[in-house]
Amino acid sequence: MSYCLNPQCHYPVNSPPERFCNRCGFRLLLKERYSAINPLGMGGFGRTFLAVDQDIPSHPKCVIKQLYFSHSEPKTFKKVVALFNQEAIRLDELGKHPQIPTLLASFEQEQNLYLVQDFIDGNTLEEELEKNGVYNESQIWTLLKSLLPVLQFIHDHQVVHRDIKPSNIIRRKTDDQLVLIDFGVAKLLTNSAILKPGTIIGSPEYMAPEQGRGKALPASDLYSLGVTCINLLTGVPTLDMFDIVNDCWMWQDFLPAGVKISDRLTEILDKLLKDSLKERYQSAEEVLQAINLNNTVKATNSHNLINLISELNTDYTKLQHLLAKKRWKEADEETWVVLCKASHKSVGSYLFNSDIDQLPCEDLQIINQLWLLYSSGRFGFSVQKRIYRAVGGEYATFCEIIGWKVHNSNFSDSALQFHSSAPTGHLPSRRWVGGCYSWWLHAQHMATRLEQCGIN
After folding, report:
1. Does the pTM of the predicted model rise above 0.85?
2. Do residue 129 and residue 114 come from a single domain?
3. Which of the four, 114, 354, 364, 440, has the lowest number of CB atoms within 10 Å?
4. Are 345 and 448 in a shared domain?
5. Per-residue confidence of the chain (456 residues) as pLDDT tens digits?
6. What CATH number is given to the structural domain containing 406?
7. Does residue 113 share a domain with residue 132?
8. At residue 118, what are phi and psi to the nearest 5 degrees?
9. What is the DSSP string of 150-174?
10. Which of 118, 135, 155 is the last residue of a domain?
11. Residue 329 among known ligand-binding residues
12. How do 122-124 and 169-172 pair as beta strands?
């Protein structure tokens, strides 16, 4: 079946292999390759269709987003096209993240604007909730750890999603990863000052207070993520959980009978849901730090609890001293020293992937705990592992997020940031990594070794 994309066509269903609509004569193929087969959704100025790419032999599925402005003035339409092109560039950049749909094409055809994106095969979290019932605490922790790096990525690209909710998060069937969809370019264009001044973008039941007043910030997405979590935990319509008299969320009162949520998760969710921007988390990075502190560093809140001499007799007292003094550059250099000692290699030697595979678990644990403790959860091997796994092992994306150059294994100190506000996971650096052709697999080998050692 082919579906006519003419907004005025009253009989849009066509049988293949027609190239033009039987009823209105509208061209059925976009760019002579994309064929709509079924409508997925529609709004005032836009529609979304399931489609196939006829140019590729396997005819893979894709998604067409159509924006139509049949009654716009030429001057207005020209402004819309300019804004559309700007947003398409942003979507192209965002689509490089493995948990955001890839932008395949963007173009104008017959006075309509089109975006074509990857089709994500899977169920939305809204569908999962309806089918499987409410989420447990473990599932919420997993959700936060999966989506927060995605939000950090889009916010670093100066983009605010504006519509985080269960129906805009899909669990991809192929790898079980959560994918963030519907960045609302159609809403942004059609509700912009060009067409509808003052119109608010987003879903009111998930929207942060400042967003409802027309100001969307990265913290607004975090608020919506918090509302998404309590909806998944309770299965209750979100606005039913808000106490308008006391101006606060009462979500714990709506948990299923007998279900208790830990103080750690409650504290994080409550801070995500703060009405006041000053009291709310300001960045995804800050939330990830809080999660990391709660789950790992809290157990080692004093260096006295960390054994500073390993069974191999490697002494970590100097590393602990440098980290406690926030002397990040020297601590990074000392990390190389102790890694060499733990690997029975001379100081200054490079470690290859085979060396990483054999690193003693106790030594890795000590190094990681010290970095976590003195950076308040910002730096450490486990932080890097979490980010690497969150981006699906895409090394270039991993490097972009933590602020490393991609193409050379050993870069100079000038390419590193030795301060407390360096990107999350920026340190320890990879200055100790060796190898010719497969050095970049060090992140994969380290992640695997940490998991083998039970270091999360």
Report:
1. no
2. no
3. 354
4. yes
5. 899 999 889 999 998 778 899 999 999 999 999 999 999 887 656 789 999 999 999 999 999 998 876 556 777 777 778 878 887 888 888 888 889 999 999 998 888 899 999 999 999 999 999 999 999 999 999 999 899 989 988 888 888 899 999 999 999 998 888 999 987 654 554 444 444 544 567 789 999 999 888 888 899 999 999 999 999 999 999 999 999 998 899 999 999 999 999 888 999 999 999 999 889 998 898 898 788 655 444 434 444 446 677 777 888 989 999 998 999 999 999 999 999 999 999 999 999 999 999 999 989 999 999 999 888 889 999 999 989 988 888 899 899 899 998 876 566 677 899 998 899 999 999 999 988 778 889 999 999 999 898 887
6. 1.10.10.1770
7. no
8. -55, 140
9. HHHHHHHTT------SGGGEEEETT
10. 118
11. no
12. antiparallel
Residues 290 and 309 in one domain: no
Q: Which residues span the domain enclosing 446?
A: 301-452
| Total tally of structural domains belonging to the chain | 3
Say if residue 198 is in the same domain as residue 289.
yes
- 70 plus 154 within the same structural domain: no
CA angle, residues 442, 444, 445, in degrees to nearest 5:
65
Active-site residue list: 163
Assign 28 to helix, strand or coil. Answer: coil
Q: How many residues are present in the chain?
A: 456
CATH classification at residue 193: 1.10.510.10
